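Troubleshooting log. The previous run stalled partway through. Resubmitting the same two chains, unchanged.
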Amino acid sequence: MKYAVGVDLGGTGIKIALFTAEGEIVKSSEIKTRVEDGGKHILPDIANEIRSLLAEAGLSSEQILGVGVGVPGPVVDGRTVLSCVNLGWGETDVASYIEGELGLNCKIGNDANVAALGEAWKGASRDTHSSVMITIGTGIGGGVIIGGEIVTGFLGGGGEIGHAPIHPEVEGRVCGCGKVNCLELFASAPNVAANYLAVTGKEMSCEEIFNAAKAGEEAASKVVDDMQQLLGKACAFIGCVVNPEVFVIGGGVSQAGTFLTGKIQEYYDHYIFPSIKGARIILAELGNDAGVYGAAKLALDEWS
Amino acid sequence: MKYAVGVDLGGTGIKIALFTAEGEIVKSSEIKTRVEDGGKHILPDIANEIRSLLAEAGLSSEQILGVGVGVPGPVVDGRTVLSCVNLGWGETDVASYIEGELGLNCKIGNDANVAALGEAWKGASRDTHSSVMITIGTGIGGGVIIGGEIVTGFLGGGGEIGHAPIHPEVEGRVCGCGKVNCLELFASAPNVAANYLAVTGKEMSCEEIFNAAKAGEEAASKVVDDMQQLLGKACAFIGCVVNPEVFVIGGGVSQAGTFLTGKIQEYYDHYIFPSIKGARIILAELGNDAGVYGAAKLALDEWS
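Second attempt completed without errors. Output:
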């Protein structure tokens, strides 16, 4: 029997899971991301944790088809991440390290792209023609999957939907990337809170604002509706570029469920070019595991 | 020696060209599109013209790898166009007709998508990782090419960039598609003229407005600049979805040359997510032949 390893490398934690080639999780673990010292402990920690996991499962290297890794930065060639600000990394050849250290095949991808691949493999967008995942949390990430494959882009920017310039400039509001029109700047969790603060003068978390909106509170409803309109319009724009069968909404804010997605769907249907109306806006299904699923699939697509 | 036939079916004319498998045009012709009687003469006309072309070139069916056809409507499966308003067509199985009539393999695609494929094969975007073509004329069409292939989309909407909802609504301005935020509604040739009329009260063609802008006329410069800004912003949005290596600008308005594309590039560079800055905005090279090139390539990719 053959297996693959999926690694989801985040700014605070690293998830590692051992998969059968069919996509069942056999064993998994999570370790802390040690970002100190320029992040130099991270790759050795991952290698050690993979060794332990294989030992616990009683597997030899020969039984592992490959290791896939989702990393929080742009990836162009499947091997090197150009930078990971959260990890203190500059350009880092993750695949060569893992291959050299463990003697296993390794392929890497951008974390949001890889999560989209995970959902397309075993989650909400399985068996679809094409999908775009939008992950809404502290920021907005995304991934475009066509024909079962990640659209990486020329410079690793495929699915960087959070930085799509969609909103008119608002005085004093600047995105972490330095730009002023980003989707993320108005529709991510902290920015929903900022929108609410700007209107009401009250500090509430995005989750609290969604709960208030569910309860019918006027200002919260307006702020949530504005966010849904912007997301629906962004999806309609994306629809005119790659026209996916489904949009998968994930990330912490997707806990709001169909209260979130229902209105995004309405705005999508309103804004989309009528000839191609028909895509569905659905909720992600794999939660925090989307990354390890997608990472394992990256490896399986390459070596199985 | 093997050949392919490329057909570009437009609302007023039909271009047909016979290509070598390497992409040299051996013979070509153009006939009028007879849209009368619900467009029922169009396919027989195409079949007859292909027969004549092969006879003139002294070629037998066995030497033809296939026929590719670009059609002005959405295509999902490579065979059937869902509707062609300009031709009076409802759903039409073009491939089966050509195959039945001529005994040749046939594959079809949306005309703007096919033109993008032509530019990626032998034109401005040859040898690129990925490209998005934007054709600016009476309307705005487009095509997305990744890994040498057209991104068709689930419902044939890949590259329908003219209908991307990007502009804020303007009272009284409605796109042919019924929507009010379309890129095309503000940046196509007739809409540039409408923008100029709205500002100055003067009727000028898009070409005249570009000439006035080149000569430094203030209102024309402003209208052209607004259009370039909108196009640059649209390209930056597309960059955050598929991140192509190049954007190819074609269509009648691209006659304005780098006077058009230079400013689109500036606005693109201004709006694009800084981490993925680097795409080039370039002029199409194949002019009205892009369609026949791309159509022939469709067939060659399938049967050579």
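Takeaways: The two ends of chain A are 12 Å apart (CA to CA). Chain A touches chain B through 50 residues (CB under 8 Å).
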